[in-house]
Design brief:
Blueprint lengths: L4 H7 L10 H10 L8 E8 L11 E5 L10 E4 L2 H10 L3 E3 L1 H8 L7 E4 L4 H4 L3 H4 L17 H10 L1 E5 L5 E8 L4 H17 L10 E8 L5 E3 L12
Parallel strand pairs: 3-4, 3-5
Antiparallel strand pairs: 1-7, 1-8, 2-6, 8-9
């Protein structure tokens, strides 16, 4: 793969063989975010589990202390009082069967989907549309709930969902380069703490195999997998 001049220059700042402390790695990720737009900082964590087994799945959600820096568009499937509560909480669009029909027609102008439990019979029809995009409401992610108002508030505040892909890796954004190292560190620790807490009982051996951060257009920076999360200093 041929990289541009900026990327090539930025790679010189990073020792690809080194395992950095989290703060150092995030500082480098910010320094190598030299694009003309505010780049997203992403975390990539490879876990010592096998996603093919149901008892080794790792999935959940966490509200980042400093948000994601993104204006999140929220769609809510609800009716009656719950629909009203969702609207008052700031949902961008609220509906029931009509919203399902709209999405079936190709409308996808939202980033998070939330549903009350009684609506899942309707929402289930959208499995082939929402599932591949990671937008299907889920009880584990807190997006199927009776408290739709809180779910909307959390989504707007920077709640992100984390889940394993087929390679046993979790990919998540933790904010923008403009946040600076300190705020990114707080968001990173919140995410890693949640992932560590979600360790399956069936997981054996080293749980966090590798960890890296990178800006949208920048090189990956590897972090010491044995020293991640808010308790790293005590490890």
């Amino acid at each position: 793969m041929k990289h541009g001049k900026k990327y090539t220059e930025n790679t010189k700042l990073v020792d690809r063989a080194a395992l950095y402390e989290t703060e150092q790695a995030l500082d480098l990720a910010v320094k190598t975010a030299t694009a003309k737009f505010d780049e997203t900082i992403e975390v990539h964590v490879r876990l010592g589990v096998d996603s093919r087994h149901a008892d080794q799945q790792v999935r959940g959600a966490v509200v980042l202390p400093n948000g994601t820096g993104k204006d999140v568009r929220v769609a809510v499937f609800a009716k009656g009082d719950l629909a009203k509560a969702a609207e008052e909480a700031g949902a961008d669009i609220v509906g029931d069967a009509d919203l399902v029909t709209k999405i079936q027609g190709g409308w996808m102008e939202f980033d998070v989907a939330i549903a009350s439990p009684d609506m899942m019979g309707f929402v289930g029809r959208l499995g082939k549309v929402l599932g591949p995009r990671g937008l299907m409401p889920s009880p584990k992610a807190g997006t199927v709930t009776m408290d739709v108002a809180k779910a909307v508030t959390d989504a707007k505040a920077g709640k992100i969902e984390y889940r394993l892909d087929k390679s046993n890796i979790i990919h998540c954004p933790i904010g923008k380069a403009s946040f600076g190292t300190e705020k990114l560190m707080e968001n990173f620790n919140a995410l890693l703490d949640a992932i560590i807490k979600a360790k399956p009982a069936a997981a054996k051996g080293q749980y966090i195999k590798s960890c890296a951060v990178a800006s949208t257009m920048g090189p990956g920076v590897r972090i010491n997998p044995n020293r991640v999360g808010s308790n790293a200093a005590a490890q």
